[in-house]
Amino acid sequence: MLLCTLVVFGYVNFCFGQYNINSERISVKTYDSEGPVEHFELKGVKAHSFDIPAFIKKNAHLERVLINGSMVSELKTTTIKFDSKQQGNLEADHICQNVQTKLTPFLGIRGTRRKAQKGADILGIIPNTSAELAKISVSDDIIGFDGVIINNFRELQKAVLASEIGDRVELTLENNSRQYSKSIVVGSRGIETISYKYCKEEPIAAPESRDFLTDRNEVSFSTYPNPTNATSQINFTSSSKEDVIFTVRDIAGSLIHSEVFSNFKGSLNLDYNLDSQIGGTYILSLQQGEELYNRKVLLVK
C-alpha cells in the first residue's frame, strides 16, 4: 500500500492508496456550571445534515457550546467553528454565519511522498482540474516546474505554492526516459471557514442548488457542470413573470457581467462562458423583483 500526498497546495491530505478523498466530521461539546454535559462526533451524512443553528438555540441555556468540524473534498475544504464563550451578544434571537473563502494554487495531481527519487511520480489525476485539462498522464514523472528542477513531490508542492492562480507554467515531464514539456495553467482549490455567531437580525439564507419554494413563487435554478473548465449551463424557471437580471461576480464581489432578460416567459436557459477568466470561484446570480438567487461555480483551468 503506497503512502501518498494529495497535492492541493495550501492543504495537504495524506492518503493510503485511495483516489476519492471525502470526509465530513463534526465534534460537539457542551458544558454546564459543573463541567462537561455531553461530547459526540458525527461523520458522513449525519455530519452533513446536522442543523447547527437549531442545536445552538436549543442549548443556549448551557454554560458553553463548542462545535468544530470539517467538510473535505478534493476541490474544497470547509472548516466549521462555534464557541459560545466567544460570543458578545448572547441575548440575540438568531444564529448567523460568517463565511470566509480563499483560493490556493492547485494542480490536481496525486503522487508518492518518497524523497530519494528523480522527479515527482504521479499516482492519479483528479477530475475537472488543471492536470486533467492539460492531459497529464499517470505514466509521467514531473522533473521540472517552470525551470525549477523537481526531485520529489514535496519540491513540486513548494513550487506550486510559490506560483499564482492563473499562471501559465511549463512542466518538464519524463516518460520511459523520454523528456518533453507541457504547458499548464495553475488552477485553484477553495478553502472556506464558516463561523457561527449570535445576531439580532434574521439571516437571509442562500438558496441551494435544488428546487425550492419562496414566499411568492416556485423557483428552480441550476448550473451545470460545476466545476467547469469554461462554459456553465444555466437553467432557471419561475412562476413569476417579472424581468430577470443575470449577473456574474468574482469571489471578491467585482462585477464581471450584467444582462437583463425582459418579457420573461417562465423559463430561462443560457450558456455563460467563463473562459476569459482565471481559475477560481464565481457567483452567478439571478434577480427577479425583490428575490435574489445565487450559485457558486468553480472554474478550473
Question: What features would you describe in this structure?
Answer:
There is one protein chain. With 301 residues, the protein is mainly beta. It has two domains: 1-202, Pdz3 Domain; 212-299, Sandwich (Immunoglobulin-like), CATH 2.60.40.1930. The protein is 8% helix and 53% strand. The strands form four sheets. Strands 1, 2, 8, 9, 10, 11, 12 and 13 form an eight-stranded antiparallel beta sheet that branches. The chain has a six-stranded mixed beta sheet with strand order 4-3-5-6-14-7. It has a four-stranded antiparallel beta sheet with strand order 15-16-17-20, with no helix packed on it. A hairpin with a 4-residue loop joins strand 18 (244-250) and strand 19 (255-261). The two termini are 31 Å apart.
